[in-house]
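Please, structure for the following, as tokens.
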Amino acid sequence: MYKLLIIDDDTDLTEMLKLLLEPKSFTVMAANSGEEGIATAKRWNPDLIILDLFMPEMDGWQVCKSIRVFSKAPILVLSAMNKPGLITRALDEGADDYLIKPVSSNVLLAHLNNLTRRIPLKQSAVDS
């Protein structure tokens, strides 16, 4: 089981992703703001993070940069924006991958599985 943190202000999306990913070897926690996401990442130490870019008050670029100060967990940006400059900026700020919404569940799972291969084995176990 991998600990997966979803940071997105769209609660419907975070609930849908939880339903999709929990049966697929992920323990999922959601945060619905950038500040909440950073605090949860510090406290929970997730193995993987799914991050939206456009959130009120603190955007995904700021969140990514802040998380990179204390975590090496792979970050997958999941955004509706399909502009090369925004994708480049997200990757430059520390994201490991970028997918455009809407994305099929199979493609999302394939990208998450790819990112799990970068996680050291000692980190991947969920605390009992």
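The longest strand covers residues 2-7. Confidence is low (pLDDT under 50) at residues 123-128.
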